[in-house]
Fold:
Amino acid sequence: MFVAIVRSLLGVFLLALGVVGLMRIMDPPPDMPEAARKFLGALESTGYMMYMTSGVKVLCGALLLFKRWVPFALVLLAPLSVNIVLYHVFLDPSFAHSFMAYGVAAANLFLAAKHHEAYRPLFR
Structure:
């Protein structure tokens, strides 16, 4: 039951963040450090990176919510979640901005551990 709750909460959160990112309806916090602002500006200047990461969030969120290909969704989410955590560790360490990133990473790790058998063929 706890696994289903974590999976559903992570799915809803990712789906919401992805939709917000695709629709561009939320501005970055005004108190963001300069290095973080420059990094996000560089990602936005590519013209595709923010849309791609938002699309991955929507896809992973939907897969988690509908309980379809959950191990695949977690593998797809892993590099994004590691990058978001490292962004907060190195560029925006304020806990007020980073607690959700740590929660997403923790949920991703927890769910991956619960689906560890699905990953066994990857390590043969």
